[in-house]
Design goal:
This protein is α+β, with helices and mostly antiparallel strands. It has five domains: 117 residues, 2-Layer Sandwich (Alpha-Beta Plaits), CATH 3.30.70.120; 77 residues, no CATH class; 78 residues, Alpha-Beta Plaits; 170 residues, no CATH class; 95 residues, no CATH class. Helix content is 58%, strand content 10%. Strands 2, 3, 4, 9, 10 and 11 form a six-stranded antiparallel sheet that branches. A four-stranded antiparallel sheet has the order 6-7-5-8. Strands 1-13 form a two-stranded antiparallel ribbon. Helix 12 packs parallel to helix 21 and helix 15 packs antiparallel against helix 21. The longest helix has 55 residues. It is extended and about 110 Å long. The relative contact order is 0.12.
C-alpha cells in the first residue's frame, strides 16, 4: 500500500524502427510519455548512455519534433459505419496486436467492402423512411373510418378543400367556441392522448381566411396517401399490404448484412484494434525528438515493470534500441514524476474519493489506507445501524455487480459494513434501540458521552494526521515546514499542549495555573512566526525569500489562523456525536407517527417509509459530512493533492481493470 517508485527512461534508436517501437510501447502500456525535446532541454542528468553510442548522440544538437501527423477521420467514419451496420460494439482484439503490420494493406479489403456496402446502407435508410411514412399514413387513414366517402375523393374535390388536423384538447375547445367565425365545416373524428383529430371542409375561395384561424390554434396536419383508391378500410388494407412488402424487402437486406457480419465482423474488430494502436503510437511520436537518423523517446515507467519491458525490448529489437533508466529521486530538473497508487482490494475503492481532492505527489505518503479507515469510522459512528447498514451493504454489492462503477459500489459496501458494526455497538436495528442489547453504548441514553467521544475520536485522527505530515515533510526534506510549520513539529506540539491544557482543566488533573502550557504554546507560535529565518539558519540558505516586512505580516496572520484552525478542527468533530444522536431522533419521529396510525399495517408502512428516507437522505448527508471532515480537518494537515496522475499510453485502462469490490 504505497506510491510506486518510478524510473525515468530514455529510448533511442534508428528512425526506421520508430513505428515498431511506438507500437511496442502502446501494447506494453506502462510508459507515461514525456516530451523528449523538453526533457533534453532541461539538461536533466537522469538519463545516461554508454560510450559506444556517443557517436549517434551527436545528433542531439540537430533534433526536431515529429510533425508528420496522420488524419484518421476517414478510417474512423468507416469503422463507425460498420459498428452501426453490423450492430457491433468497439473492442480491442488482444490476439491481433503486434508491432509488425502494414495498416493500409491490412485494411485494404475492408475498404472495398465499405465502398460496396454504402449503397446497401442508403437502401436501408430509404426503406426505413418509406415504411415510417406508410405507417403514419395508415394511422391517419384509420381516423376516417367513420366517414363513408372514398379517401381519394376527399383529397381531390374541386371546390372544397379537405384536411385532417390534430389539435390539443385546449385548442379544440377554443375552436368549438368560435365555430360560427370559421369558414369551414369541422367534424370531430377521434380523440386520443390529450389531442383531438378533426376533419375540415373549406371552400377554395376561403382557404386563406380559414388558414389564419387554424394557424392560431397550432394545428398539425395529418398526411393522407395519394395513390390509393377506396374508402378508409380499403385504403388501410392496401397500405398494410405495401408496408408488409417493404418490410419483407428490408428484412432481406438485413439478412444479407448479417451474412456479411458473420464473414467480416472479425475483420472489422481487427481493423479497429490496429487503428487504435496506430493512433496511440502517433501520440507517442508527437512527443518524440527526431534527428537525422535517430529518434529519442522519454518517459516514466514503474520500477516493478522495468525488468519485463527490458526483456521484451531485447527480444523484439536486440541491440538496435538503446534503453537507459535512472532513479528519479536524484533529479533536480525536468518533469515531476507521476503518481501510481497501488493498494490492496480492501481500501482500493477509496482511491476514487482521494482523486476527487487531488493526486498524491510523488514521494508523498499514500493517504488511502488512513483515509479508508478513518472515513469508515466517521460514517459508521454517525450512521450506526445494523439493519440500515445491511441495506447499504447490499446496495453497494448490487451497484458494483450490475454497473461499471466498481469503486462507488465498493465504497458503499464498506460503509454499510461499518454502519453494521457500529449498529451492533449502539444496539440499533432499523432505527429501533429496543430489539437488541448494545455491545457498548446507547447514544440517546448517553448524550454527553457521545459528544465527548466524538471529540476524542477527532483528536486521535488529527494526531495521526500530524504524524503523516511529519513523515511527508521528512521524506521531502522540507525543514521549514517539517520542523517549524503549523502542520509540522511546532504545530503538533502546539496542538498536543492545547489538548493537554483543556483536558487537564476539564478532568481536574491540572489544579494550578496554566502558565507552563500557555508558555509552550506561545513559544511554538513564535517558532511558526520565525520559521523561514530559522530554516535558513539550519540549511544555510537565505533567511527570507522575499522582503522581511511582507513575510512577517503574512506570518502574523498565519498565527491567528493557526489558533482558530486548531480549535475549529477539534470542535468540528462534535458533529460525529450530533449526527449519531440525530439518527436515533429521526427514527423516534417516524416511530411516533407510526403509533398515531389507526392500524398496524399503516404503522408498518410509516416505519418502512421512514427507514427509506433515513437511508437515502440522512445517509447522503452523513456521507457528505464525513467527506467534509476528511477534506477540511484532516487533509489540510498532511495531504497536498498536487501530484500528477500516472497516465501511460495504452489500449486499455489497466489501472482500473481490477475488481473494486
Amino acid at each position: 500500500m504505497a506510491i510506486e517508485k518510478m524510473k525515468i527512461v530514455s529510448i533511442a534508436g534508428k528512425l526506421p524502427d520508430l513505428d515498431r517501437i511506438t507500437r511496442f510501447l502502446v501494447i506494453n502500456g506502462s510508459m507515461h510519455v514525456l516530451n523528449a525535446l523538453s526533457e533534453l532541454s532541461s539538461n536533466s542528468p537522469g538519463v545516461s548512455v554508454s560510450q559506444e553510442h556517443m557517436k549517434e548522440l551527436q545528433e542531439l544538437a540537430h533534433l526536431k519534433p515529429y510533425v508528420a501527423r496522420r488524419d484518421f477521420t476517414k478510417d474512423e467514419a468507416m469503422l463507425k459505419f460498420f459498428w452501426d451496420m453490423f450492430k457491433l460494439e468497439p473492442e480491442i482484439c488482444q490476439e491481433c496486436l503486434n508491432i509488425d503490420y502494414d495498416y493500409e494493406s491490412e485494411t485494404a479489403e475492408l475498404r472495398k467492402i465499405y465502398e460496396s456496402l454504402s449503397g446497401i446502407s442508403e437502401a436501408l435508410k430509404e426503406k426505413a423512411a418509406v415504411i415510417e411514412k406508410l405507417q403514419r399514413q395508415l394511422e391517419n387513414v384509420a381516423y376516417l373510418r367513420s366517414i363513408s366517402s372514398k379517401v381519394q375523393e376527399l383529397k381531390h374535390m374541386s371546390f372544397i378543400k379537405f384536411r385532417l388536423l390534430m389539435l390539443s384538447n385546449e385548442n379544440f375547445r377554443r375552436l368549438e367556441l368560435n365555430l360560427e367565425n370559421i369558414p369551414s365545416v369541422v367534424i370531430r373524428v377521434a380523440a386520443e392522448d390529450g389531442n383531438v383529430v378533426v376533419g375540415t371542409f373549406t371552400p377554395a375561395g376561403l382557404l386563406e381566411e380559414a388558414e389564419r384561424v387554424f394557424t392560431s390554434l397550432n394545428y398539425k396536419e395529418l398526411e393522407l396517401p395519394e395513390a390509393y383508391s377506396g374508402n378508409a378500410a380499403e385504403v388501410a388494407k392496401q397500405l398494410q399490404g405495401e408496408i408488409d412488402k417493404e418490410k419483407r424487402f428490408l428484412e432481406e437486406l438485413r439478412e444479407s448484412i448479417m451474412e456479411l457480419k458473420e464473414r467480416y465482423g472479425a475483420e472489422v474488430i481487427r481493423a479497429y484494434t490496429l487503428l487504435e494502436l496506430l493512433k496511440k503510437a502517433e501520440r507517442i511520436k508527437q512527443d518524440a525528438a527526431l534527428g537525422h537518423s535517430m529518434f529519442f523517446i522519454f518517459g516514466f515507467i514503474p520500477d516493478s515493470e522495468m525488468d519485463t519491458i527490458s526483456k521484451e525490448l531485447q527480444r523484439d529489437f536486440g541491440d538496435s534500441i538503446v534503453l537507459a533508466a535512472d532513479n528519479v529521486d536524484a533529479r533536480r530538473y525536468g518533469h515531476a514524476p507521476p503518481t501510481r497508487i497501488r493498494n490492496n482490494v480492501l481500501v482500493r475503492p477509496f482511491e476514487a474519493l482521494i482523486s476527487m481532492y487531488g493526486t498524491p505527489s510523488y514521494g508523498e505518503k499514500d493517504p488511502t489506507p488512513f483515509f479508508a479507515i478513518s472515513y469508515m469510522l466517521l460514517f459508521g459512528a454517525m450512521f450506526g445501524d445494523l439493519g440500515q447498514g445491511l441495506v447499504i451493504l447490499l446496495g453497494g454489492l448490487f451497484i458494483g455487480y450490475k454497473t461499471k462503477n466498481k469503486s462507488f459500489g465498493g465504497i458503499l459496501a464498506r460503509l454499510g459494513l461499518s454502519s453494521m458494526v457500529f449498529g451492533a455497538l449502539y444496539g440499533s436495528i432499523f432505527g429501533s434501540e429496543e430489539l437488541i442489547e448494545p455491545l457498548l453504548i446507547r447514544p440517546m441514553a448517553n448524550i454527553n458521552t457521545m459528544l465527548m467521544g466524538a471529540i476524542v475520536l477527532g483528536m486521535l485522527l488529527i494526531t495521526v494526521s500530524y504524524i503523516f505530515s511529519l513523515v511527508n515533510h521528512y521524506s521531502s526534506k522540507n525543514v521549514e515546514e517539517g520542523l517549524f510549520g503549523r502542520e509540522g513539529l511546532a504545530g503538533f506540539i502546539f496542538f498536543l499542549t492545547l489538548v493537554y491544557a483543556v483536558a487537564g482543566k476539564v478532568t481536574g488533573r491540572i489544579t494550578g495555573g496554566l502558565g507552563i502550557p500557555i508558555g509552550v504554546m506561545v513559544a511554538m507560535l513564535l517558532v511558526m512566526v520565525f520559521k523561514q529565518p530559522l530554516a535558513g539558519l539550519l540549511t544555510g540558505h537565505r533567511l527570507y525569500e522575499d522582503s522581511a516586512g511582507d513575510y512577517y505580516i503574512e506570518a502574523g496572520f498565519g498565527v491567528v489562523e493557526t489558533i482558530l484552525s486548531v480549535a475549529s478542527n477539534i470542535i468540528s468533530f462534535i458533529r460525529v456525536g450530533a449526527f449519531a444522536l440525530n439518527h436515533v431522533g429521526l427514527y423516534i419521529a417516524f416511530a411516533t407517527m407510526a403509533e398515531m396510525m389507526h392500524s398496524k399495517i399503516g404503522g408498518v408502512i410509516v416505519l418502512v417509509i421512514g427507514n427509506i428516507i433515513i437511508i437515502g437522505l440522512e445517509g447522503l448527508i452523513v456521507f457528505i459530512q464525513s467527506l467534509r471532515l476528511e477534506y477540511y480537518e484532516l487533509f489540510s494537515k498532511y495531504y497536498s493533492g498536487y501530484g500528477i496522475e500516472y497516465d501511460p499510453v495504452s489500449l486499455s485502462d489497466k489501472e482500473n481493470s481490477s475488481d473494486m469490490l
